[in-house]
Amino acid sequence: MRCLHGSSGQLSRRGFLTVGGGVVTAAALSGCGSLLGSPTQIGPSSPLVDEAERARRVAGARIVDVTLAASPTTIDLGGVQAQTWAYDGLLPGREIRVARGDVLRVNLSNGLPQPTTIHWHGIALRNDMDGVPDVTQPPIGPQAAFTYEFTVPDSGTHWFHPHVGMQLDRALYAPLIVTDPTEAGDYDVEAVIVLDDWLDGVAGDPDQRLEQLRREGMDMGGMDMGGMGGMGDPSRDPLGPDTGDVDFPHYLVNGRIPAAPITVQGRPGQRLRLRLINAASDTAFRVALGGHRLSITHSDGFPVEPVDGDALLIGMGERYDAVVTLQDGAFPLVALPEGKQGQALAIVRTGNGDAPPADSLPAELGGQLVMAGRLRAVEDVRLAPRELDRTHVLTLGMDMGGYRWTINGEVFGQHEPLPIRRGERTRLRFENRTMMFHPMHLHGHTFQVNNGSGTGPRKDTSIVLPMQALEVDVEADNPGQWLLHCHNVYHGEAGMMTVLSYVE
Ligand code: C2O
Ligand code: CU
User: Fold this and answer.
1) Tell me: the pLDDT tens digits for 114-136?
2) Are strands 418-420 and 497-502 parallel, antiparallel or unpaired?
3) Distance 130 CA to ligand 2 centre (A)
4) Shortest CA distance to 272 belongs to which of 349, 374, 209?
């Protein structure tokens, strides 16, 4: 069965699709199934979405009001000035911090020259607030405003960013921290650490860079590397030899280049909780704190049985929380872009002494590396064992000759939505037929990685290694139309996105 999006051609993610002045609803855009006599899609305006929200809503919930203004601005990266687009002129944008159960209400005004939206990455929210243009809402036009309002059901380290075009590769992102008032929290101080790869306003802009990739075709995108280098040395290149499509002039921690780093202050002996967020577009990072070991406590906001290591690998869109017991002195917190030149740096300081130099490479970077595969969810957050109702296989591919990244052979807009029914335990099996890793992200749910024993970590974004498969299990408890895509923004924009589509 082939699902065609009307006679007017394909759905453009950037454009407005309007009929008679009104915006076509997501149900109409992707509702071709009903024409063919198959089940009806549960769209963002379905009463079932309201019903799910009511079930999440806590009586007497606190409402947290935030305003955001997106606009062009100049950001100082630490001596380097970048002309870019940001929320309220800040990089990262101002952190939003709420408690589990709060209602978050955000008024966004769009001062950008393009339409925009906000996606609340990691939050199991109501579908019509998920911020995917033409799938869950009409894009917010230039000079227009929109209010997002939704219950935040789960604690954890999350973040938000636009879901239009290449906007995420500018300064448009910020942490969204959801606290749990009942959490024991075995730490004294905390720091939110946001990693990024940067080119905007320094080396062209992300739209130009994507156009360049499209002109160049796939010659740097994947096939050739495998033939030349094989799979490489997995201990040195855990993501394979081809880790990115774009070289960035700068790598940032909280908006700063290594020459002008932020400093995290603490006292010796204190326990520091690092909330690490990878907001980069095309870069995975290896993170280590000189002189310390990391104890990984959370993946994508959900608790894991703590695992110690010297360094952590974090893909685009992923978050990890790590706790360290602070030593006395000044220490480099370094994020090395996997397979690329350069680095990002912050300083952790508990005492006097010179700050570590900008090019510090602590030995921990070459030590024991923690990846998601080693993690196990704590018992409370494991999915209860049960039979699978459905399995969807997603083959991750690419087209020679053009910069096109595909799922099941199609780019977004020509994709076939993946049906799912409420209450079903569904397995998503990703089969990566390319030579690059893809951090695959599902909206509106936190799946459990299938590690064969029902104890895999809960996550919403998981790295699928080159030429390998990964399975994740989803409890279908949040009706709507949910984007499922590669969080390499260049790959996503070049097609590697589809929709997990609740039907009834
Ligand atoms: Cu953080 Cu659909 O993305
Ligand atoms: Cu990808």
Assistant:
1) 999 999 999 999 999 999 999 99
2) parallel
3) 21
4) 349
| Look-up of token digits 């955001």 | 68
158 within ligand 1 shell (Cβ under 6 A): no
- H helices of 91-244, where? 206-216, 223-229
Give the total residue count for the chain: 504
* SS3 at position 452: coil
CA distances to 240, 277, 492 from 311, in Å? 18, 15, 28
Contacts of residue 92, Cβ cutoff 8 Å, sequence gap at least 6: 171, 173, 174, 175, 194, 196, 254, 255, 279
Of the candidates 429, 420, 428, the one whose C-alpha atom is nearest the C-alpha of residue 476 is 420
Query: What is the atom index within ligand 1 of the atom nearest the CA of 461?
Result: 1
Give the atom of ligand 1 at the shortest distance from the alpha carbon of 122. Answer: 1
The answer to whether the CB of 24 is under 6 A from ligand 1 is: no
Give the tens place of pLDDT for each residue, 9-49: 333 333 333 332 233 344 444 444 444 556 899 999 999 99
pTM of the model: 0.92
Give the N- to C-terminal CA distance of the chain in Å, as an integer: 18
